[in-house]
């Protein structure tokens, strides 16, 4: 049991090391890559007795030879806080679209690990059968406030990318996409604003993340998210999605534009994801290489 826990600690830090991201003891327990849940009470003692591969400086733990990443994390923290202010401001405006049920920050920024040059990725949940109308209205708002990231932008720092949109009937990540990388993306999603307790529904629909990180669900459920149940402020916008024609026209228009510069987008009914580079394969390949280096068995 002790050997398995030690391996889990090393696995977790090897994964976060790909992102130059040392972990606090609390973060290490929350994101622990393990086949079984690990009790929190005895965990600190286990960390203290870990082998020489794992080192500690201050409150952070990291893989040997990577102490410089602590300063990198601190520098990115300052930059990330600025970006989060922009994300909250933009989310508040985007939430004026009444078919938006949830907005969260994803990617590096969700872990406060963004560089100055990075954009701001948002994850959006919409009402059923309104994904395309909702996306179109959100893009128009982002263009209006000067924060829309367009394809081909060379300077996209602090621009907003609607990285992934799903409707409320498709909040469970498809089984063929479930792996350690996707589990991390789900687990580290930072909720910003919601209606109808949508974030809780999202967690309940994706409990599979505990197959990779069995300690994480409790921490996810404890995250604070701004709730709003205010009346719709724009009757015209509210009525648009009720007409299938509006959704169909919005989908047709946007798909035409998307296909002009198609990369690795995932487009399904109620599910739209933008990933111009195959980060999943890149990250998991690096992770498996690290596991081989330290002679640790992989089950991802």
Would you spell out the secondary-structure blueprint of this structure?
Layout: H1 2-17, E1 23-24, H2 25-30, H3 43-48, E2 54-57, E3 60-63, H4 68-94, E4 100-105, E5 120-126, H5 131-144, E6 160-167, H6 180-187, E7 190-194, H7 198-205, H8 216-221, E8 226-227, H9 235-239, H10 244-260, E9 266-268, E10 271-273, H11 279-293
Parallel strand pairs: 5-6, 7-8
Antiparallel strand pairs: 1-3, 2-3, 4-5, 4-7, 6-10, 9-10
Helix pairs in contact: 5-10
Properties at a glance:
300 residues, alpha+beta, Arc Repressor Mutant, subunit A, 2 domains, 7-stranded mixed sheet, 3-stranded antiparallel sheet, 11 helices, globular
What does this structure look like?
The chain has 300 residues and is of the alpha+beta class. The chain has 2 domains: 2-70 and 283-293, Orthogonal Bundle (Arc Repressor Mutant, subunit A), CATH 1.10.10; 80-279, no CATH class. It contains 11 helices and 10 strands. A 7-stranded mixed beta sheet has the order 8-7-4-5-6-10-9, with helices on one face. Strands 1-3-2 form a 3-stranded antiparallel beta sheet. β5 (120-126), α5 (131-144) and β6 form a beta-alpha-beta unit. α5 (131-144) crosses α10.
Cα(first) to Cα(last) distance is 20 Å
Major beta sheet, strand line-up? 8-7-4-5-6-10-9
Instruction: Give the helix level as a range of percent.
Output: 40-55%
According to DSSP, the number of beta strands is 10
Task: Provide a compact summary of the structure.
The protein is α+β, with helices and mostly antiparallel strands and 300 residues long. The chain is 43% helix and 15% strand.
């Amino acid at each position: 049991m002790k050997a398995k826990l030690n391996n889990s600690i090393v696995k977790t830090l090897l994964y976060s090391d790909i992102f130059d991201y040392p972990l606090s003891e609390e973060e290490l327990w929350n994101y622990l890559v393990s086949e079984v849940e690990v009790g929190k009470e005895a965990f600190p003692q286990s960390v203290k007795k870990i082998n020489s591969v794992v080192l500690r400086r201050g409150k952070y733990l990291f893989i040997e030879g990577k102490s410089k990443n602590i300063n990198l994390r601190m520098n990115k923290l300052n930059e990330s806080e600025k970006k989060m202010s922009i994300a909250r401001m933009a989310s508040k405006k985007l939430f004026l679209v009444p078919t938006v049920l949830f907005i969260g920050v994803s990617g590096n920024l969700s872990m406060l690990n963004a560089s100055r040059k990075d954009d701001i990725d948002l994850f959006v949940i919409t009402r059923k059968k309104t994904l395309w109308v909702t996306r179109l209205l959100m893009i128009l708002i982002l263009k209006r406030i000067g924060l829309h990231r367009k394809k081909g932008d060379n300077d996209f720092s602090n621009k907003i990318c609607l990285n992934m949109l799903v409707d409320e009937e498709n909040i469970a990540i498809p089984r063929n996409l479930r792996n350690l990388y996707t589990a991390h993306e789900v687990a580290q999603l930072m909720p910003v604003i919601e209606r109808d307790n949508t974030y809780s529904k999202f967690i309940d629909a994706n409990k599979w993340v505990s197959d990779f990180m069995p300690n994480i669900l409790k921490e996810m459920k404890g995250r604070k998210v701004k709730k709003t149940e205010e009346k719709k402020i724009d009757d015209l916008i509210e009525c648009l999605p009720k007409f299938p024609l509006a959704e169909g026209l919005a989908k047709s228009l946007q798909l035409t534009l998307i296909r002009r510069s198609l990369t690795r987008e995932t487009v399904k009914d109620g599910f739209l994801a933008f990933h111009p580079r195959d980060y999943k394969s890149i990250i998991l390949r690096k992770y498996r290489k690290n596991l081989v280096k330290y002679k640790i068995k992989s089950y991802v």
